[in-house]
Design a protein that fits this description.
11 strands; 8 helices; Arc Repressor Mutant, subunit A; 5-stranded parallel sheet; 2 domains; Rossmann fold; alpha/beta
Amino acid sequence: MAKILIVEDDRNLLDTIKYNLRKEGYNAVAAFDGAEALDVARREKPDLIILDIMLPKLSGFEVCRILRKEMTIPILMLTAKTEEVDKIVGLEIGADDYMTKPFSMRELLARLGAMLRRAEMSKLQLASEQKTLKIGDLEIDIGRHQAFHRGSRLDLTPKEYDLLVFLATNKGLVFSRERLLDKVWGYDYAGDTRTVDVHISWLRQKIESDSAKPKHLVTVRGAGYKLEG
């Protein structure tokens, strides 16, 4: 039974989400503000976090940023805003997915199920692929779930790491944004291709000596992206 932490200061919405999660067989725990969210996450070690952006004490952005340094569990961010910048910021600091309020409970459950399945598949893949990938001055230790550039460990979000591993295992092959969404985020991910561009941009900041002139993570105009040595 997966344990899901719901961080939401709207008590009615929180109770509704909690009720539906428990109805589906999940173990649901809750926090009402950012500071409590950190305490509960550290104590309960959930399998997934549903995290509202607008929270008392600490914003969802701050909570996400802190937790990403401590754990790699999937994070789904909730926002009442529709501005693209909020969604992009959430992705940039390590959120795996986002939903804009109001949303249907059916869609939320579908997203959660997909995220948990991907997380489990990633664990199984790591367990079965104890190996290291080397591309130029990049090294990816699959067994330890770590990546290095010129010997220095890279501080990657879970999705940045997944994207890097996928492209590295398919070195030299070009993938469109749509294909990357399918392969890295999952076929039922409801986001748009801007998600891919954001992660590519931030990954370049970390693996390229000059992100403005990338040598590893290359854009193929009109086709997509590829990783090369």
